[in-house]
Design goal:
Blueprint: E1 10-13, H1 17-28, E2 33-36, H2 44-48, E3 52-53, H3 57-62, E4 66-69, H4 74-81, E5 92-95, H5 101-113, E6 117-124, E7 136-141, H6 143-153, E8 158-163, H7 168-195, H8 201-216, H9 220-223, H10 227-235, H11 241-257, H12 263-277, H13 286-292
Parallel strand pairs: 1-2, 1-4, 2-3, 4-5, 5-6, 7-8
Antiparallel strand pairs: 6-7
Bound molecules: ligand FVH.
The site of ligand FVH has 22 residues, from helix 1 and helix 4.
């Protein structure tokens, strides 16, 4: 579609917090938008803003060429879409429901059997961000579908295509969420530690914790280095693993004496200790990534 063509009619199925934000962004960009939700009342505000309410799931799917689904999970998606399987042929199914790579691949096969093009998506944003460039949405699956609807997808946020394997977007989504929850867990531990003394957690968070976490992102490329290059990196490192293990052990000891649960840090200390004990002694933190992976041999 070029910028002079009229906006593509879009259907949004699932009007929870995220589905409503998606439909509102399409409406705001002038797309004829049909909506469906199990609890019909969720559509009221969108209908007031110009959306068309579909009475049935089949009516929703047949309303246009691009069907966007954002439901609680994949079992719900299949329960909802199965009755409309016969009318999916020739349409593009875009699934923004959070799930696993295996679920995405199964759903791509399910869509292909019904003659639909399939894109899976991972939304790296919360509902108020939808419609802004800061809202990144990852897509994988059919490249022709992505190319045809890229401009429409950019209405939701910055559309980023990551590959033809339909499971890739959810893999990247879950990986990014894992990094986020890891950071939240570490930050929660830090705030619990500081909170054991007469310190202001809000002041600590804004003046020290946030700048510190921002500064430490400089180490992320080191973690991503391949194992075979990390040995050399470690030899030149200013922060060798045995030095870091001592600091982590001190955090564990201090956490215990401050009565803060050290379970989180124990999981960091054990892999680091194992890394130091290995024959490739001296490898830098990049080796932790390999330690976490389970080998299939
Ligand atoms: N909200 C967020 O911050 C995150 C951001 C990143 C992406 N996630 C994923 O988006 C999916 C939907 O999330 P949501 O925030 O819209 O979730 P809810 O507000 O809880 O809405 C759930 C919708 O699913 C419908 N639903 C649930 N069970 C059924 C069912 N058995 N049959 C039919 N529909 C069902 C529910 O309908 P209703 O309860 O209103 O009738 C909502 O439409 C999700 O994968 C996130 O991980 C959001």
């Amino acid at each position: 579609m070029n910028e002079h063509e009229p906006p593509v009619p879009v259907t949004v199925i699932g009007l929870g917090a995220m589905g409503k934000a998606l439909a509102a962004a399409f409406l705001a960009a002038g797309h004829p938008t049909t909506v469906w939700n199990r609890s019909a009342g969720n559509a009221d505000s969108l209908v007031a803003d110009g959306a068309m309410r579909a009475a049935t799931i089949t009516e929703a799917v047949t309303a246009g060429p691009l069907v966007v689904v954002c439901l609680l999970d994949y079992p719900v998606l299949h329960e909802v879409l199965e009755p409309a399987g016969d009318v999916l042929a020739g349409r593009a199914l875009l699934n923004l429901t959070n799930g696993t790579p295996a679920q995405a691949r199964e759903t791509a096969d399910w869509a292909a059997q019904r003659g639909a093009g399939y894109l899976d998506g991972g939304i790296m944003a919360v509902p108020p961000m939808i419609g802004q460039p800061e809202a990144r949405v990852l897509y994988s699956g059919s490249r022709p579908v992505f190319d045809e609807y890229e401009q429409t997808l950019n209405r939701l946020g910055t559309a980023t295509y990551v590959g033809t394997d339909p499971g890739l977007a959810s893999l990247y989504d879950l990986a990014l969420l894992s990094a986020m929850y890891g950071q939240f867990a570490g930050a929660s531990h830090a705030l619990a530690l500081v909170g054991t003394e007469k310190a202001d957690p809000a002041e600590f968070a804004s003046s020290l914790l946030t700048p510190w976490l921002t500064a430490t992102t400089i180490a992320l490329p080191l973690l991503a280095q391949r194992n075979d290059t990390s040995t050399q990196a470690a030899e030149e490192s200013d922060s060798p693993p045995d030095m870091q293990a001592v600091a982590i052990a001190n955090i564990v000891t201090a956490s215990n004496s401050q009565n803060v649960d050290e379970a989180l840090l124990s999981h960091l200390l054990i892999p680091l200790r194992d890394l130091i004990g290995q024959s490739a002694h001296g490898r830098d933190l990049a080796g932790m990534v390999d330690l976490i992976k389970k080998t299939t041999e």
